[in-house]
Amino acid sequence: MLSLNVKNETSRLRAVVLGTAVSNGPTPKAEEAYDPKSLEHIKAGTYPVEADMVAEMEAFRAVFEKYDVTVYRPEVVENENQIFTRDIAFVIDDVFIESNILPDRIKEFPAIRHVVDQVDPAKFVHIADQDIHIEGGDVIVWNDYIFIGTYKGADYPDIKTARTNLKGVEFIKNLFPHKKVMAFDLVKSTVEARDNALHLDCCFQPVGTDKAIIYKDGFRDVKDYEFLRDFFGVDNLFHITRDEMYHMNSNIFSIAPDVVVSERNFTRLNTWLRSKGITVEEIPYAEIAKQEGLLRCSTLPLIRD
């Protein structure tokens, strides 16, 4: 059995499920795009090709190997995008939760069954109610807190980029009554990727032990931003620009409080991280970023110290 343990985003990682870009399928048609950034690249003819994405994910895997992290991979489903394992499940403390995701993506979860089979059945949660929506990218675990991205607009059912609803927030509150669960109302767009926080980790993520990366305009309510600003302290925040949010600067991944995997083009962020004493393992991930997901999106942490 796997001894699941995830209490925050940065403690030393021991085991993770890393997605796969093998047999990723053909370039989607415009009407099949899940998000505005993918749509932008489909229309421009710049949508990433499989070989480039496989190479990027292998670079990520090599970093995990360097730090002796046990890496699980999904079984390959023919012609299926299986890169973003963060969407399909997530671990809080020692509980493994299967997400309720877009119906178009139902083939992805069975491909990690070999991992789920190693989880204590008493610690596995399946959400039976299809009106409860939640994806792992919207869930950020931070010790006593669980931060959850949501969308409170009345047009939620019509917004394809809104992935976690208030029923999802309530579900987590009920599952973890001892935690402080905070919901943040995110900016959504189905047409402009620069104004779309697809998940909470697209505009916010803790790093180290007391710092965070944040995009102020990713929050519909300035009070949500102000809570996080006050929680971490303004001097501990790295504020990213609209363009940096578009390129997914907040979606890096922590292997330990002092080790981060980041995209090699994030010059300003990587310089700041190093100035805070954090080792930055830079890898190429700009092709995968074209699908509005990056390093955190590609991972499902199972065990941290």
Secondary-structure content class = alpha/beta
The strand order across the widest sheet is 2-1-15
Radius of gyration: 18 Å
Q: What is the mean predicted local confidence, pLDDT? A: 95
Broad shape: globular
How much helicity do the residues have?
Answer: 10-25%
Helix-strand sequence:
EHHEHEEHEEEHEEEHEHEEHEE
Report, as a whole number of angstroms, the end-to-end distance. Answer: 17 Å
Low-confidence stretches: none
Beta fraction:
15-25%
Number of strands: 15
Number of helices: 8
Largest sheet: 3 strands, mixed
Can you describe this structure?
By secondary structure, the protein is of the alpha/beta class. The chain contains eight helices and 15 strands. It has helices at residues 36-44, 50-66, 85-88, 113-116, 166-175, 222-232, 242-246, 267-275, and strands at 13-18, 70-72, 89-92, 95-98, 124-126, 139-142, 145-150, 180-185, 204-207, 211-214, 237-239, 253-256, 259-263, 279-283, 299-304. The chain has a three-stranded mixed sheet. It has a three-stranded mixed sheet with strand order 3-4-5. The longest helix is centred in the first third of the chain and has 17 residues, at 50-66. The radius of gyration is 18 Å and the shape is globular. The two termini are 17 Å apart. The mean pLDDT is 95.
Summary tags:
22% strand; three-stranded mixed β-sheet; 305 residues; alpha/beta
